[in-house]
Amino acid sequence: MRGTILFLACALGMQAAAANSVLIRNVTVHPITAPDIQNSSVLVIDGKIADIGPRLSAHQGARVIDGRGLHVYPGLINAATNVGLAEISALRDTVDLDEIGTFNPELRAEVAFNPSSEHVEVTRAAGITTVITLPGSGGRGGRNGGGSVITGQGALMHLDGWTWEEMAVKRGAVLEMLFPELQSGGPRQFAALLGTPATTFQEQEKQYKERLQRVSDFFQEARKYRQAKQAGGADFRPDLKMEAMLPVIDGKQPIFVRAERERMIKDAVAFADKEKVKIIIADPRELGSTGPLLKEHHIPVVLGKTFELPLHDDDAYDAPYTLPSEFFKAGVKFCFGTFDVEFARNVPFEAAQAVAFGLPHDEALKALTINSAEIMGAGEMLGSIEKGKWADLILTDGDPMEAKTNIKQMFIAGREVALESRHTREYEKWMKR
Amino acid sequence: MKNRIGVLAAGLALTLNAETIFIRNATVMTVTKGTIQNGSVLIQDGKITAIGKNLSAPADATVVDASGKFLTPGIIDCHSHTAIEGGVNEGTVSDSSMVNIKDVLDPTDINIYRELAGGLTVMNVLHGSANAIGGQTVVAKLRWGKSAQEMLFEGATPGIKFALGENPKRQGYPAQGFGLNQGAAQERRYPGTRMGVEEVIRQSFIEAKIYQAEWKAYNEKVARGEHPIPPRKDLRLDPLVEVLEGKRYVHAHCYRSDEILMLIRVADEMGFKIRTFQHVLEGYKVAKEIAAHGAGASTFSDWWSYKIEAYDASPYNAAIMQKKGVVVSLNSDSDELARHLNLEAAKTMRYGGLSEDEALAMVTINPAKQLGIDDKVGSIEVGKSADLVLFDKHPLSGFSKPQKVWIDGHEYFDREKEIETRPEFEKKKKALQDKEAAAAPPGRRRTGAGTGESNPTATNPNWEEAR
Hints:
The complex is a heterodimer.
Chain A: H1 2-16, E1 22-29, E2 37-45, E3 48-53, E4 63-66, E5 71-74, E6 76-81, H2 118-124, E7 128-133, E8 150-158, H3 164-167, E9 168-178, H4 201-231, H5 240-249, E10 255-258, H6 262-275, E11 279-282, H7 291-296, E12 301-303, H8 319-329, E13 334-336, H9 347-356, H10 361-366, H11 370-375, E14 393-396, E15 407-412, E16 415-417, H12 422-431
Parallel strand pairs in A: 1-4, 1-5, 6-7, 9-10, 10-11, 11-12, 12-13
Antiparallel strand pairs in A: 1-2, 2-3, 5-14, 7-8, 8-9, 14-15, 15-16
Helix pairs in contact in A: 4-5, 8-9
Chain B: H1 2-15, E1 21-29, E2 35-44, E3 47-52, E4 62-65, E5 70-73, E6 75-80, H2 110-116, E7 120-125, E8 133-141, H3 148-151, E9 159-163, H4 166-170, H5 194-223, H6 238-244, E10 249-254, H7 257-270, E11 276-279, H8 287-293, E12 296-299, H9 317-323, E13 328-330, H10 341-350, H11 356-361, H12 365-370, E14 388-391, E15 402-407, E16 410-414, H13 415-439
Parallel strand pairs in B: 1-4, 1-5, 6-7, 9-10, 10-11, 11-12, 12-13
Antiparallel strand pairs in B: 1-2, 2-3, 5-14, 7-8, 8-9, 14-15, 15-16
């Protein structure tokens, strides 16, 4: 009885302590933006990183974790996923991707993010605290068809929270666009826009230019809308699509442009120049001669999977493996994404493969943390262990890019979150049989 | 006849005339007999002839200094669709056991080389999963540059692909199919349910047993000196009779626990064995029954949720089945995944806490056991074929990559040489491109997008043909 009372008192005491204040001691801290620190501590107060150093004392009431032998990294970020919007990819009813319509800038990923998706827990168990969730599946492999040019706005989401509102870190982080492609095998993602399938090169080129023109026209329309809005005439009517385009044409919201090929990248950069908009190149499969162009224009890149087959039969066998190091050598800023749901958790392994094929180890870690945060306009909030940033932290027994490493504990904005998932629960259940 | 001798001679030449190679100072990961630090391995006539710490190189040996590097057995993929020319499914009938992968093996498929560069040396090449009973399968070595005939693994027991669950029943309601079948008007084909899948398999084996009995009776009469009319030859039933007689392995694609158990019971009833359950994503729910049947399980490291029958899939599957006594391997089912099965194996250390040896066994000795070739490959042991991979770092580290790959003591991949020859290769390619550009009439030039693109289905995990 006395024990119970003592226990209750302790429990109450703990509750009184801020749930998102914690001191993690005796760990190797990997701040990412500064050199690693051995035998150090990280102090978290009210969800933010308050201090890093060897001799910190616990904030009053803060929980103390002895992490002897363990490492602390910032939570990893997957900069391109469909987590929360798709559950079982083959079952259309469980998939909220690729809305009907060619230009859908007004669609917002976060409002359809299912906070109870099993993918949330499964993804974060691999050390991923934050994802970009995109409204389109991107057409690679044509999972759900598509037909859009602008699919909607992607959101930066914490993988913790009771509701999508609590999970959203940055709404409207990017506007997702599938850049028109010069087709040689008939239309794919532009079926809705195209008339007849292309045949000769000249015809294909003509159609391609027409498609680009339609995109330009849409941007022009948005500018006229802004003028009309500023003029404030009596007959002005607000329009959701046009409203959504305003931050884009003002250069405030970057366009996340999917462009796989060298030619598409070049055309996308030319398009951004012409329209004076900010872009991020997404899911490129080759660098080609675009390195200096991207560097000069300070255009960042979200790389897709490293574990891919080369584009062409006569490409080097390791071309997809060396691609990240090529971008690095070209001086282009980049981060990693997986552009899917069920393999979103494997983004650290995609980065590791790039390290095996020439990318410096530290650069790979940056491309999983600070670069992703900065590219998504959230570099002030997260992506590294620095004073004032949100305490998105993982406690590990090794390098988070290694499969054999165990992610021991995770904090999102200072709150400890469970690393259990459907998979660990099934494991425990069926081991008993 | 002359041809046959030619083929035999070529086959012999694959193992004979191999160099004597001495690999020294490697961390030798034998998989079955522990790991030797600073160990050496001697290869003669395509076989491993000595392993140890204090060996010296014979005078005629080519010495490979492997200081700081890791030597492992060649990686084995128990579920591949690599090098299959054309479609992987003969999807028009529910039982297509008459077709054979051997007839469509394409030795020029570039993915053979790409997978070799990932340390893969043996693959079990299977049909797709559109039919309850698919086609006949082969085990092949990745002897890049050799003919289709020369790629076949000598003496390996051939197999047959079975498929349970969503894929074989999908033709029963094709309008709801996905991928290429989405929305297409197609004929419905029986079966459209898991119950129908069971019935197709049982019915085929009932026919096979009658057919087997007819031939037995006929052969007995012939042996007695009689001259009976022979039964009608049936190419569909022949391989099923081989299954009944234990001469052909059943590799059964499956997902859910109910269908796994169903096939075990059908096999019990008909008197045959299932050699491996493939994918077997809910194998962890019926591991006891799989182990009791004596079947192996060849699964994915971490695929899940791409369809409803994969929603209960778990990355812990391999570890649970292993802990419950099943011989488990990890397979690729993908030209891409087959390039790094060692890294897939490493995931079993995180998901289920397997040891390094147990993890590595999942892609070496275990698949060898499942394919009945563990007396020849799958570990570094004296007498086994010299199918070896030299990694620059620990093969279960995500930062490692293969440097050299040997099959039967022949070097089939060398990263340094590959990189050295790239400028020359690029020069040749450019010359060809220039020539083509000069020759093509204006307006017919093919540039940029879409030319020679790799098959997108190869990497798409949702492609029904492949799973």
